[in-house]
């Protein structure tokens, strides 16, 4: 199950990174952070740089995918937590939910599949006491 979690995590992480880069390069109308990449530098507020956040979450998912090869618990946490943060990010941008969802749907599905596989691997590793 480690290999399934690893493969799904890599697909989810790459999809998140490529989705963030693609939307940033296509100048989609998803908030000020999408159209002006240096908006957060000019205003001193990094929360508007949605593309940077998505790429960072994708990098965390890739880190979790490599970590799941050694430790199913921490790898699974690093696979699922960025997916949850990404869904919160999508939900909080009320005016741009559907535009953000097409970027974040595929990474979320693969992150959850990787997390389920990592959890099943952890279930196999833990011996019951008694």
Unreliable residue stretches? 44-48
**Which structural class matches the secondary elements?**
mainly alpha
**Topology, number of strands:** 0
Main sheet properties: none
Q: Per DSSP, what share of the residues sits in E-state strands of 2 or more residues?
A: under 5%
Q: pLDDT average, as an integer?
A: 80
| Strand and helix order | HHHHHH
- Portion in helices: over 70%
Quaternary state of the chains:
single chain
Number of domains: 1
**Rg, Cα atoms, Å:** 16 Å
Number of helices: 6
Shape: elongated
What is the compact description of this entry?
This protein has 130 residues and is an all-alpha fold. The chain is built from six helices and no strands. The longest helix is centred in the last third of the chain and has 29 residues, at 97-125.
